[in-house]
């Protein structure tokens, strides 16, 4: 794709595009059978986006039974929340429950209930007639119940239709792909994808192309997600704000993301038609101002609709959060102090064409390193206060517990359980501010451990891991669970104003983005041009040699996302045949590594001294590093590894390649290769000692699942007795000193 240097260039098609190959505009169905001969034949599937997406979700959600039960329980949960909330508001006599007044209900037999000292739960529950009378007397409750019932019936119809689709996909798995239901959990997505590609050759599902590639399938499954990833990468979405007293904050919630998808992709008046083609008027630069005004009006209308529905959505959010987190908070008060990857972080850190399970596996591997880095920062003042709070609150709690153990009648004292619970929560929260007494503060190494998995970091983090600003910026990607819950609760209130004011100001830039960064691919439709992994048109000069890219600053993906996404896709899809430019890029990368490997110091010393070693030796790793040929005997660096944890499995000579848990459901186990790539790569880039991408080699033991195309294979370098490749990249910095980075690669 070629885009003019101006932001206002016209939409372009790929050179090999032919008009007759575009999907018909009126094709709306999910699956069309042409039952010529065999009944179980699938020909000319019109909406391949939905079809491939359903195939992917069917695999990731473990088949028909799990998906069906998940949808049914979702309906039951909604029904339970509505009915139980109505019961609590209308059918419980709280004055009786709290013993503020005596029981005055009429006994079903006609007489009054006998007087007694203790109040039971049935005493506080109103009879059915009184409960119904309370409900009928409240117009608001009736209105809310009618709305809830309407929504539930809508969801019920949708679930029933989905069940038919699930069964259709189940039939496709068993008959077309030859994967029985009981084997689905043991089958990787790469195997399913390979069978899809093979099936296309036998009976064409897509009539617009004879051959399907892995990239075609990813383009259809991730069409809209790639656009969102690109918009976050280009800082197009207004999600960063500077707040008084709080500084810079990021606000992106599930509600806001849903509204963005509704506005851009599949809602009424969206930019796409047929869910795979950008509307023709958005492809022309001449109408950009009018289209921006139209999009701005749509944003205002959507914001007003959100404002109108705000009370109902807010009530639902509060109720759902209450029922979901109250028990967890009581059982584990510190759980809200745990962290999770934010929604913004998931979009910021996501590669182009990275499937959900691949992203989840990568971020899960980075969870513990990120937690260790964030927890390594401690305030001495807060720690001092927390120790004293723990002492005083713990003393009171110990006395109350001792009295309860001595005589259980103490529990009957008013508010004694409340006091014990609150004191326990206070002690738990205070302890979270007390650092581990055995903690060794090494922020640079910890941040490199994080980088080995998340793959992206701003340049100004380099050498500044010890600063609070770096920690605060990482906290935008790796937020507290309590912050996540608070943002979701505030989302119904904040989202309308973001749509009406902040997003509307970006309407013209958004129109230009979709025109300049959309490309029409034969047999696929309109996709985000960044998803083509075209380093010439979207490469970053900081990651490539001179003349390897023609992209202007506007066209470049930030932080080397195009290059990293290309290598990630080549690693996770080893059978994929890259285009010539990408093949040259990967081949050049491997040649440079091979040249440097010829002058490599002994592997044992490099492994022991490599600064990147810490990122491979954090305690989330499930495997062990063994010396080649030992079959699991001794460690590569001797009897004791220099770091106590994350260990990558190296294959013994002639033996099967070691796999981590990612290699089953999650596809090929490649955490080691990826970690070597991104950690060495980012540091090499930031140090500016090399104009090209970091020198690294995606090594693959014997086996088709882990090989790149044959034409890209250099001769193997043998280390010890096992066929294991080791890679490193000069230019990596740790504590201000340039060192070589070495990492074992699966």
Automatic annotation (TrEMBL):
Concerning its family, UniProt says: Belongs to the ATG9 family.
Q: Which GO terms describe its cellular component?
A: autophagosome; phagophore assembly site membrane
What is a biological process (GO) this protein takes part in? lipid transport
Q: What is the phylogenetic placement of the source species in the record?
A: Eukaryota, Metazoa, Chordata, Craniata, Vertebrata
The superkingdom listed in its UniProt entry is Eukaryota
Q: Where is this region: Disordered?
A: 1-28, 621-661
Compositional bias segments (type: Acidic residues)? 17-28
Identification of the protein by name: Autophagy-related protein 9
Where is this gene product found?
Preautophagosomal structure membrane
Asked if the keyword Hydrolase belongs to this entry, the reply reads no
Q: Which InterPro entries match?
A: Autophagy-rel_prot_9
Tell me how this protein sits in the membrane.
Answer: Multi-pass membrane protein
Q: Which UniProt keywords apply?
A: Autophagy, Lipid transport, Membrane, Transmembrane, Transmembrane helix, Transport
Which residue ranges traverse the bilayer? 139-157, 298-323, 381-403, 415-434, 482-503
Source organism per entry reads Podarcis muralis (Wall lizard)
State the protein's purpose.
Answer: Phospholipid scramblase involved in autophagy. Cycles between the preautophagosomal structure/phagophore assembly site (PAS) and the cytoplasmic vesicle pool and supplies membrane for the growing autophagosome. Lipid scramblase activity plays a key role in preautophagosomal structure/phagophore assembly by distributing the phospholipids that arrive through ATG2 from the cytoplasmic to the luminal leaflet of the bilayer, thereby driving autophagosomal membrane expansion.
* Cross-referenced Pfam families: ATG9 (PF04109)
